[in-house]
Amino acid sequence: MPTYALIIADVVAIAILVFGLFLHRNHRPELVVALLTVNVGVLAVASALTTATIGAGLGLGLFGILSIIRLRSEELAQSEVAYYFAALTLGLLGGLDQSPSWVDLALMAAVLAAVAVGDSPRVAKQPHTQQLLLDHAYASAPALTAHLEGYLGATILSARIVRTDVVNDTTLVDVRYLPSSDVALTVPVPAAVR
């Protein structure tokens, strides 16, 4: 069974991850319970595995299964998947080692540092994503992009057409964009652009 030092280190690390990084940057309080539960659950299972006489293959298999968990009710952004993976990793680091060392604590710190740097708005601007139902059936990608840039007042990073309805003259599109702070969000687009 892991010592209390690693369990305490895991509690501190998950608190920093969830309340210091995730909640502050992503503003998704509904995922806090999921991250905390995943971490504590993995910590408990990993701690139980250390007391049993099981091979490392089963532990790695468990880690693989847990790392591919995907919530079917809502798609998660890649950064949110990274937070889940970090919560899993911290739980495993806190629960698997029977004799804690500075390496375990350094690995926990490295996980937190990777998330802190990788999800920092200073590293890269976080794009906005949304699904839009447009009142025109677009057949041309450049025309669609021009319309979206004008409508959103933003730089379009990607626009993926989900559905085009030529009968009702609509297009459903997933769009990723970087908003311009000085452009209004409802700039009309001339009909010639369509």
Question: What is the gist of this entry?
Answer:
The protein is of the alpha+beta class and 194 residues long.
Description:
With 194 residues, this protein is of the alpha+beta class. It folds into two domains: 4-118, no CATH class; 128-193, no CATH class. It has six helices and three strands; from the N terminus they run αααααβαββ. The chain has helices at residues 4-26, 32-51, 56-67, 78-96, 102-118, 141-152; strands at residues 128-134, 154-165, 170-179. Strands 1-3-2 form a three-stranded antiparallel β-sheet, with helices on one face. A hairpin with a 4-residue loop joins strand 2 and strand 3 (170-179). Helix 1 runs antiparallel to helix 4. The radius of gyration is 22 Å and the shape is elongated. The termini are far apart. The model is unreliable at 182-190 (pLDDT under 50).
Characteristics of this structure?
194 residues, alpha+beta, 2 domains, three-stranded antiparallel β-sheet, 53% helix
Radius of gyration: 22 Å
Low-confidence stretches: 182-190
Proportion of residues in helical segments: 40-55%
- Gap between N and C termini: 65 Å
Gross morphology is elongated
Any idea how many domains?
A: 2
* Proportion of beta-strand residues: 5-15%
The SS-based structural class is alpha+beta
In N-to-C order, the SSE pattern is HHHHHEHEE
- Arrangement of strands in the largest sheet: 1-3-2
Largest sheet, in brief, is:
3 strands, antiparallel
Give me the number of helical elements.
6
Number of E-type strands: 3
Mean pLDDT: 76
